[in-house]
Each structure stands twice: as structure tokens, then as C-alpha cells.
UniProtKB/TrEMBL annotation:
Broad enzyme group: oxidoreductase
Residue ranges constituting the FAD dependent oxidoreductase domain according to the UniProt record: 9-327
All copies of domain Alpha-glycerophosphate oxidase C-terminal, residue ranges: 385-479
Catalytic reactions on record: a quinone + sn-glycerol 3-phosphate = dihydroxyacetone phosphate + a quinol
A GO BP entry: glycerol-3-phosphate catabolic process
Keyword NAD: no
UniProt protein name: Glycerol-3-phosphate dehydrogenase
Organism encoding this protein: Cognaticolwellia beringensis
Length: 510
């Protein structure tokens, strides 16, 4: 397909969860869509979350009732539509009377239970901690409630796959450097981030879903004034060996009124976060600070019997949340809600920009964004994403799916089978098509990461370097050595599609 001569209905700039969600929604409603991402899908904020699909219990303290209600409703939809990468998770909230009184927590949990209809998750309740609790002995009471865990980066990938399945073009490693209105369309200049090759596309409308760069894109590429200000708030996490063997996550209160989560992560680890720190600077340069590390360690050690130190940290990550600037005094009070800003020229060439948002409400945001553009496309189709599984999620019971995969691929080791189902759902049948033995999966690079899976991710999920594969499409980076990582990169560099992509350097298309 010659994208240069074709006029797209919609060009989405940004391959995070909002951009991928909007591309999927629009493509499924019949629009001709192209998505451009300057790096890899989910390479910024969308892979740096606390990996939760949640209503946001703490948002109730800031009177964000509408946001919590919407998030709780979306929680049920996402649990139904992506059961391979989203699963129920129970949270325990240890009670510290000097931080928040029990009556206040009970009111919050009552609202959490009843603001939206619960379908799959149990109601909250009070609990007592016994002597075998992982918590320090002076904490004897608390509360339990339910939310859900998500593989955030794979949620983005699956939305991009959904968009592609409905005809969208997904262009990763492709930066929008300029967009001008010309002859009732946008003429958009793109730069290949790998080769520097310049190309041009045309589109009737644009969505600016650039996340932390949403305001900057207005001045750098559109030569327009941003309609809203954003506030960059850094959230950092640490990963340590599993603190306790129980399946529950913990929500920990702190004296500064902030909370952090300690959640089970990839079987053998605990994920601890997040912080809320005002951030100034280039979003791609964000990293955890010593103060944040100390804060997360101290907060965790105040609650758990098992103490952790810097020596226990396996890895860290930090992300910049582009929140709508509502002039809140401190970072933790800034709204997590979103605003959609639409600007056009004589009812033509609209540009819609996304400010704020959270991963739990991405689907609703995407639906609202496409609804806002619908007057420009009279033949647009109806909404559809609430009742349609994401790719790989078209099954009703994960136990039955597991039994079916075990029967069809009896040679697949149990741990690998569990991981592949958790990542791919029914896509596993495409991954293992015509494979009849573990040897047929090719070379194992370590941590059950085989040549077959790496090639599949390059050929079908836009992976082009080792970070794409071991952190965003899988989490095998937690287990791999530096030499294994280097060997994987060597393999990727020799893959024909990667060689072809990188061989276009110094060419120019018009």
C-alpha cells in the first residue's frame, strides 16, 4: 500500500494506551486509520504504571466520584474482554488508626462497593491479621477489597493488534515532525527514528495522543498554541524478590497521606510503588531518585516483617504521567481524569488532543474521542469495544483454555505454558502453529525465551530491539543475564525484517 498517495481519515500521533485505544476504536468503526509512534508502542508512560486496573480508592478522598464510578465500570468490562492479561487481585489494607480512622475507610469502601455494579469481584470486608501474617506484629486489623492486575504494555500491544485487524496501519519508530493544513487535509511529515528517512502522509483529521509530549507537539509540529497545560508527575517503582508468599497485594498508608502498593509480580517478585513527584525536564530522561528509593524502602519496611534494602532491588522504572493541570497544590491531588480538546478550521481538518487520563479508563476515553470526531465522518459505525474481546481474549474460562492447550501441545513445559497463556491467550495457537516439540521452538536464549517467540514478536508485534521483547512484550528481562540480553539483540539484528528496516538509511520518499 502506498501511504503517500492515500488520504487517511485519521492519523493518531502517539502509541501509548490512549493512542492505541483510539486507533482500535476508530478502525473498528470503519475509519481509515494510521498510528505513528516515535519509539516503541508503550515505551513511555503506558509501560511504567503500577499495572493495576482499579477504580482508584484513594481518589475518593479528592471527591473524584465520577472518575471512580467510571473506572469501576470499566474494570468489569476489561476483566471480561482481556482475561489473559487482566486478572482479579485482592488487596489488603492494614489499618493504622493514627493515619486514617476506621470509619473513614469503611465509608470509602462502601462507596467503592456501590458506585458501580460489581459483577465478578467480591465486596470489601474487614479482616484480622494472624500470627503468620507477613506484616509486623503490631498490625492486627485491616480491610480487604478487590481490583485487578494488568500487563500494561501488552494491553497497548493488543489494542494496536485490534486496530491492525480492522485495517489500521501501525508505524512504530516513526516521529511526527510537522503537520500543516493544506487543501482541506493535514499533510504530515514523518521521520523514521531508526534511519532518518523522511516521508509524508495525508489525513482528514489528527489525534494528538502524545502523552507527556502532548503540549510540546503543538509548538514543535503543529505551530499552534496548546489549548491546555499539563503537569508532569513522576511515578517510580522498584522490583524486589517476593516479600511474602501470599497471593494478595497490599495497600500501605504513609504519614504523608500517600499510599503505595506492594503487589505480586511475575511469580517471583514484588512490585513496590508508586511515588508522586513533580517533574521538570525531558520525559524520556526520567529515572528514579535516591530519595524515591529510600521512600519506597522505608514505607515497605515499616509494614512487613521481611526487611528489604537497596541490595535487594532487581530493577527500577520511572514514568511521567501527563496530568491535566488543575492547579492542585501537590502532585498526589492532581486529577487523574482526562479532557479532550477539539480544534478545527472552518469545520474542516480537525485536531483532537488528549490531556490526562489513566490506564483503567482508556477504553472509555477512546470511545469518547472517536465520538467527538464522528460529526466529520457521517458514515462512521457504532461503538463496539465494550462487548468485543481484545485479541487473544476470546475465551470464557482460563482453566478450560489451559486444558485445551495442554491437550494440543502436551510437550509444552508447565511454566512456559502458563506464561504464554498469560501473555497471548488464544494467540498462542498462532504462535505455536505447526510446532510439535520444544526443540522445534528453536534456540532457548534463557528464561524460557525461545527463538520462535522472539521471531513471532518481531514479525507480528512490531518488536525491533531487545528492550521491546524482554520488557514490554514479555518480562523475561527480570531473569536474563547481561550476556543473554546481548545475545538476543544479536539475533534480532540479524532478523530479515529488522535488517530490511534498517537498510533504508539516507533514502527519502515524497
Amino acid at each position: 500500500m502506498n501511504a503517500i498517495n492515500e488520504v487517511f481519515d485519521l492519523a493518531v500521533i502517539g502509541g501509548g494506551i490512549n493512542g492505541a485505544g483510539i486507533a482500535a476504536d476508530a478502525a473498528g468503526r470503519g475509519l481509515n486509520v494510521v498510528l505513528c509512534e516515535q519509539n516503541d508502542l508503550a515505551s513511555a508512560t503506558s509501560s511504567k504504571s503500577s499495572k493495576l486496573i482499579h477504580g482508584g480508592l484513594r481518589y475518593l478522598e479528592h471527591y473524584e466520584f465520577k472518575l471512580v464510578r467510571q473506572a469501576l465500570a470499566e474494570r468489569e468490562i476489561l476483566l471480561k474482554n482481556a482475561p489473559h492479561i487482566i486478572k482479579p487481585l485482592q488487596f489488603r489494607l492494614p489499618h493504622q488508626p493514627h493515619l486514617r480512622p476506621a470509619w473513614l475507610i469503611r465509608i470509602g469502601l462502601f462507596l467503592y462497593n456501590n458506585l458501580a455494579r460489581r459483577v465478578s469481584l467480591p465486596a470489601s470486608k474487614g479482616i484480622k491479621f494472624s500470627h503468620d501474617s507477613p506484616l509486623v506484629s503490631n498490625i492486627t486489623k485491616g480491610f480487604e477489597y478487590s481490583d485487578a492486575w494488568v500487563d500494561d504494555a501488552r494491553l497497548v500491544i493488543l489494542n494496536a493488534l485490534s486496530a491492525q485487524d480492522n485495517g489500521a496501519i501501525i508505524k512504530t519508530q516513526t516521529q511526527c515532525i510537522k503537520a500543516i493544513r493544506e487543501d482541506k487535509v493535514w499533510v504530515i511529515t514523518l521521520k523514521d527514528s531508526l534511519t532518518g528517512v523522511i516521508s509524508f502522509i495525508r489525513a482528514r483529521s489528527i489525534v494528538n495522543a502524545a502523552g507527556p509530549w502532548v503540549a510540546q507537539l503543538f509548538s514543535d509540529a503543529f505551530s499552534l498554541k496548546s489549548p491546555q497545560n499539563i503537569r508532569l508527575v513522576k511515578g517510580s517503582h522498584i522490583v524486589v524478590p517476593r516479600i511474602h508468599a501470599q497471593p494478595e497485594a497490599y495497600m500501605l498508608q504513609n504519614a504523608d497521606q500517600r499510599i503505595i502498593f506492594v503487589t505480586p509480580f511475575e511469580d517471583d517478585f514484588s512490585l513496590i510503588g508508586t511515588t508522586d513527584v513533580e517533574y521538570k525536564g525531558e520525559p524520556s530522561d526520567v529515572e528514579i531518585s535516591d530519595d524515591e528509593i529510600d521512600y519506597l524502602l522505608d514505607s515497605t519496611n515499616a509494614y512487613f516483617k521481611k526487611k528489604i534494602s537497596r541490595a535487594d532491588i532487581i530493577t527500577t522504572y520511572s514514568g511521567v504521567r501527563p496530568l491535566l493541570d488543575d492547579e492542585s497544590v501537590n502532585a498526589q491531588a492532581v486529577t487523574r481524569d482526562y479532557t479532550l480538546e477539539l480544534e478545527d478550521l472552518a469545520d474542516k481538518t480537525p485536531i483532537l488532543s488528549v490531556f490526562g487520563g489513566k490506564i483503567t479508563t482508556y477504553r472509555k476515553l477512546a470511545e469518547a474521542a472517536v465520538d467527538k470526531l464522528s460529526p466529520y465522518f457521517p458514515n462512521i459505525g457504532p461503538t463496539w469495544t465494550a462487548d468485543t474481546p481484545l485479541p487473544g481474549g476470546n475465551f470464557d474460562n482460563i482453566d478450560l483454555l489451559t486444558q485445551g492447550i495442554k491437550k494440543e501441545f502436551p510437550w509444552l513445559p508447565s511454566a512456559l505454558r502458563t506464561r504464554l497463556i498469560r501473555s497471548y491467550g488464544t494467540i498462542i495457537f498462532a504462535l505455536l502453529n505447526n510446532i510439535d516439540s520444544i526443540e522445534a521452538m528453536g534456540f532457548c536464549f534463557g528464561a524460557d525465551l525461545y527463538e520462535l517467540e522472539i521471531n513471532f514478536l518481531i514479525e507480528h508485534e512490531w518488536a525491533i530491539n531487545v528492550e521491546d521483547i524482554i520488557w514490554r512484550r514479555t518480562k523475561r528481562g527480570l531473569y536474563l543475564s547481561m550476556s543473554q540480553v546481548a545475545f538476543i539483540q544479536q539475533h534480532i539484528d540479524k532478523h530479515p525484517s529488522v535488517v530490511e528496516r534498517k537498510s533504508l538509511q539516507n533514502k527519502k520518499t515524497i
